[in-house]
């Protein structure tokens, strides 16, 4: 869980790494709270500033910015768009208007949209929600742990083959015994977490898309913008990928600097401390500004930039590649569904919940990688962070 969109990504990674091994330190809760206040504000301000810059590079026209909180708001904006589009787009709009609730309207989103004077959508930016970060951490950790478990299981099979005097490639293990070896290997990996002997692969656990923006234009305009991004002296293109098929877009990961003076000024002028009440930090401290939180911040962060046409965007929101259905498919298509990756997801969710809750300390991390839990157990632990009873509605 190395979030390159965060300025304190190393500190967050170190806390998560310790918590995965069941170890907390006294200042962890305060550090998490500061990171989730400071870094999220930095990402939002940087995304919005970069969006305005890219839009100015792309369009010679006025645009305005609006905040949205649900996918329904975004899809309504698309359906009000009057630009010329293929008949397929009109059909998708008709289907949406006929039954809008079928399209995951209430999906929460922390985003801004940029519209021209005809209310045509030119761009958007968003910060990934903690639940989605936790799910992605599950998949990344699952892939990494699966590799470790599979390697260990192969090592066990190799040792048995050697004892039998048979080359490994000719050694046949019954399926039931293979399953038992895999379970034993998983238990050994879980024990490595418990004993603090495991070392995380930061590269394998890196997420580049916590902060993301989209630019919507025709293909020629997008190609010119892509070229200008490669030529910009203050922007580094870290990754680039072209998607085709049901989902069509150009995805780029950019490394950019963020303006500390501007971010701190905007925090003070907007009196943003008000939205962070009841987060475990006294209001008088929050009113002093972000400067005390920035001493060890990285001055460059990564954001995802998606370049897409209007028809392709509509397909991704209302058509064959609707975003929420891709999320559901990702949840269903995990090739490794052991208890360890599920615990990782629970633990990351709990970690973020701690950073958002009113507490300034916790006694222990209640989710252990080597334990087994149901989702309602996580819900109970999160309820306790907000001083609510452990029990649910029925007691």
Descriptive overview:
The chain has 395 residues and is an alpha+beta fold. The chain folds into two domains: 35-128 and 209-332, no CATH class; 133-194. It has 13 helices and nine strands. The chain has helices spanning 9-20, 28-58, 71-79, 87-98, 130-164, 175-194, 219-231, 260-269, 283-286, 310-318, 323-332, 339-356, 375-385, and strands at residues 2-3, 64-70, 108-115, 121-127, 206-207, 211-216, 236-243, 249-257, 300-308. The strands form two sheets. Strands 2-3-4-6-9-8-7 form a seven-stranded mixed sheet, sandwiched between helices. A hairpin with a 5-residue loop joins strand 7 and strand 8 (249-257). Helix 5 (130-164) crosses helix 6 (175-194). It is globular, with a radius of gyration of 24 Å. It starts with a strand and ends in a 10-residue tail after the last helix.
């Amino acid at each position: 869980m190395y979030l390159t969109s965060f300025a304190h990504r190393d500190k967050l990674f170190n806390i998560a790494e310790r918590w995965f091994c069941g170890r907390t330190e006294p200042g962890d809760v305060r550090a998490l709270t500061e990171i989730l206040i400071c870094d999220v504000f930095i990402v939002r301000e940087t995304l919005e500033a970069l969006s305005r810059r890219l839009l100015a590079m792309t369009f010679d026209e006025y645009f305005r910015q609006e905040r949205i909180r649900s996918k329904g708001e975004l899809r309504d904006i698309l359906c009000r768009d009057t630009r010329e589009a293929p008949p397929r787009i009109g059909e998708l709009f008709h289907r949406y208007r006929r039954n809008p609730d079928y399209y995951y309207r209430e999906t929460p989103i922390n985003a801004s949209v940029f519209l021209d004077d005809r209310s045509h959508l030119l761009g958007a930016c968003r910060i990934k929600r903690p639940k989605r970060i936790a799910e992605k951490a599950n998949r990344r950790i699952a892939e990494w742990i699966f590799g470790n478990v599979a390697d260990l299981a192969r090592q066990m099979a190799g040792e048995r083959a050697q004892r039998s005097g048979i080359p490994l490639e000719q050694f046949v293990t019954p399926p039931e015994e293979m399953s038992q070896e895999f379970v034993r290997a998983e238990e050994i990996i879980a024990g490595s977490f418990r004993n603090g002997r495991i070392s995380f692969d930061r590269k394998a656990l890196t997420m580049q898309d916590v902060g993301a923006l989209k630019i919507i234009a025709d293909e020629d305009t997008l190609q010119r913008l892509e070229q200008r991004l490669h030529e910009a002296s203050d922007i580094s293109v870290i990754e680039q990928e072209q998607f085709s098929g049901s989902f069509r877009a150009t995805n780029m990961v950019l490394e950019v600097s963020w303006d500390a003076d501007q971010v701190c000024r905007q925090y003070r002028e907007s009196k943003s401390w008000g939205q962070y009440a009841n987060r475990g930090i006294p209001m008088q401290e929050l009113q002093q500004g972000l400067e005390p939180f920035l001493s060890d911040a990285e001055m460059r962060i990564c954001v995802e930039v998606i370049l897409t046409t209007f028809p392709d965007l509509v397909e991704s929101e209302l058509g064959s590649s609707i975003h929420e259905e891709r999320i559901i498919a990702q949840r269903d298509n995990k090739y490794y569904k052991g208890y360890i990756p599920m615990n990782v997801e629970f633990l990351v969710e709990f970690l973020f919940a701690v950073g958002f809750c009113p507490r300034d300390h916790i006694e222990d991390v209640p989710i252990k990688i080597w334990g087994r839990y149901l989702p309602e157990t996580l819900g109970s632990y999160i309820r306790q962070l907000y001083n609510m009873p452990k029990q649910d509605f029925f007691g």
